[in-house]
Write a structure and sequence with these properties.
Elements (H helix, E strand, L loop, with lengths): L1 E7 L6 H13 L3 E6 H7 L5 E2 L9 E6 L1 H11 L6 E5 L14 H10 L3 E5 L2 E7 L2 E8 L2 E6 L6 E7 L2 E8 L1 E6 L6 H4 L11 E7 L9 E4 L4 E5 L6 E5 L3 E5 L4 E6 L4 E5 L5 H10 L3
Length: about 280
Amino acid sequence: MFTIAVFPNVDKENAGEVLKRIVDFCATKPMKLLLPMDEALFFGYDAYGEKDIGSCAVDMGLSIGGDGTLLGVSRQLYARNIPVCGINIGTFGFLADIELPELESKLEKILRGEYRIEERMVLSGFVQSDGRERFLANAINDVVITKGGVARMLHLSLSIDGFEVADYKADGVIVSTSTGSTAYSLSAGGPIINPKIKALLLTPICPHTFDVRPMVIGEDEEVHIHIAATHQDIIVTFDGQESFRLLPGDEVFVRKAPEPAKIVKFEDKNYYQTLRTKLWKND
């Protein structure tokens, strides 16, 4: 029996309709369906609810939403070596590989094992305050250090593997994976990097100098950012979903996590085709 854990985004208007299609499909197939208890109660599928879905034996996670939903589910499941497939009911759906018209046909392919799994790098972020280092969170797209509502720029010192490479004032800095190169980094002027390229991307946000540019560095290098700003309104965010306050003098370390996330893809989808249809939309 193939077991899938479904994670619907309750804030998406038609998530309930998509979930019903999945429930109806699984009812006629050798597939077991599980839902987190809160979502099961919300949509009226109590029988499928699990209070601790993280401890259940699951073959695949299925997200219903946009790329943000998929990223959140992937962060939950990646350490357990569980692949995640995304059903897109969001805006871009750059990572989510299933569109609504093809839902049932792609579920059939999952059941037959007709898919591939792409490994995507995960970032781990740590903060050192007063000499004590503590883990903050993981990210699949990016780790972003930026100012909050205050208009003043940040003073940042950037080091790679212990060597200081930049000391500048800016609105912040983005440390992203190749997967995240099409997210916030792209809006800040960073390049597009094929996820097959194992690298980290450092993109300054509105630097107050002309000699600071985005940098592509090795995947195993550690990024160290020292917060030299004097004001208090500084935050670090992970995939735009988890955030933590930073204080002047804090030091943030970003390094590759030990295990990658696993994203389900299908052979009829091509990275450059997705770029063309989702990002540029020329056709």
